[in-house]
Amino acid sequence: MNLNLYNSLTREKETFEPINEGRVGMYVCGPTVYSDVHLGNCRTFVSFDVIYRYLLHLGYKVRYVRNITDVGHLLDDGEDRMSKGARLEQLEPMEVAQKYANGFHDMMRTFNTLNPSIEPRATGHILEQIEMVQQIIDNGYGYERNGSVYFDTLKFIEENEDIYGKLSGRVVDDLIAESRENLKKQDEKKHPADFAIWMKASPEHIMRWNSPWSEGFPGWHLECSAMSTKYLGKTFDIHGGGNDLKFPHHENEVAQNVGSCGHAPAKYWLHTNMLLMNGKKMSKSDGNTISPVELFTGDSPHVSKGYHPMVVRFFMLQTHYRSTLDLTDEALQAAEKGYRRLIEAYRTLQALESPANAAAGELDKEINDLIDLAYSEMNDDFNTPKALARLFEMVTRINGLKDGHLPADQVSGPTLALLKDTFQKFIFDIFGLKDDSAEGGENGKDMMGGLMNVILNIRQEARANKDWATSDLIRDSLKELGIQVKDGKEGASWTVDA
Description:
The protein is α/β, with parallel strands linked by helices.
C-alpha cells in the first residue's frame, strides 16, 4: 500500500516518494523558548510525533530535525522575544532559553513523544546564517542598509513569480499588505514587504554577534533555512509546522532557500490546524485558555477534573491533524472513556488464547480485513481518527471473544497472533500511548501490571479452591483502591476507574 499525504504546497494528496529510497528527511519548526509551551504547540508536536513514528514503523530511516528558536523571533514592536523574556525575569537570555527548553522537553516526555534525531538551536548556527545572508546578497536578492540586511521581496517575485505566495495560497498583493514586517524599520527598506535577514542590534539589545554588516542578530525566518539546509540538504522530503507558520515564516523560508541556493527546501509541506477551546480561538485576554499543566491538574474553570496526559494525547488523535481540534470538558470525558476501553481491550487480548481446534473462519477474515483497513487509514495522510475507529471495531471482536459471544474456534492461531501484534504496535508504537495505570515501564508491562497479575493469580487459586471469602476480599479491596476486577470465561481482567 502506498503512503499518501496532503501537500500544502500543491493543495493535493500525493503519493509519498522520498528523494532517497528508504530514507526520509523531515524538518519541523520547534518552539521559541521564551515562555512555557502552550497546548496548541503540543498538538502540533504530538501530530508530527505520530507521523515520525509511522514512518519509522513503515521501515524508513528517518532523520527528524526540530529546531529550538532562542534568538531572532521579534515581536511587532521589534523587540526580540528572548530579550523581552530576559528583561521581565531579570535573567540572562540563555538562562531564559535553557529554562523554557527544559520545560518544553519535560512536556514532550509527558506526552510520550520521541526525541528528534537532531535538535539544533538558532544561537548555535550563527555562522551558517551569516553565510546564507551573504549568498542571498551575492545572488542579488539581499541589500544592506545601515548595518541591517533585507530580502528584496519584489525583485524575488519579479524573477520567481510562480514561487512566492504559492505555499500560503495568497495573492502577492495581499501578502505584501499583510506582512508583519510593515511595522519595522520602514525608512530603511526599498519596500514594506522586504523582511530582515540580518538586523543591526540597538544599543540596549542584549543578544548580538559580529558580522560583515554590523554587530547584530539574524532574522527569525533565516534560522530554519540555514539549519534545515545544513542537516538535510538543499532539498529534503518533509517540512512541517503549524498552519499559522505558512505566512510569513514558511513563505519567507522558501524565498530564502531559493534566493541562496536556487532550491525550494522541501518536496512536501505538512501543516497542522489550530486548537480551539469551547468552539473559540484560545485567548488570554478573554480568559479562554488553559495550559497543559492546568489540564492535567484540573486547576481551571474550563474542566471539571484533571486528565492524564495519555487521555489528552488520545483526545488529540481523535481528530485529523489538518482539522481544527475543539477542546471541551465533555470531549475530554468521552476521550477518557475511549482510552480506558482501548487499554482494557489490549489487556484482554493479551490473555486470549486460540483453542487447539481453531480454524480460519469468517471471524478470521473480519479481523484480517480490519487490520488491513487500519493501515489503509494511516496511509491516507496519517488519518488517526479513522485508524482508531478500525481499532475499536477490533475491540468489539476482542470483547466478543472474551465474553463468549463470538466463537473462539473461528479465529486461527496465526490470526490471533497477528491481532495481538498489530494492536500493540498501533497503540504503543504508532499512536505513542502508554498504559496510564502502569507508569513505570514500557507498553504498560511494568511493576503495577506485574503485581496485578500476581494478585489475580492468587484470587484465581482461591476461586478454584472455592475460597469465596478470600476471592471477594481481594476484589472488594481492589475496588476501594479504584481498581475494578471483571470475571470472564477467559479469566479475570482489571481496569482503573476513570
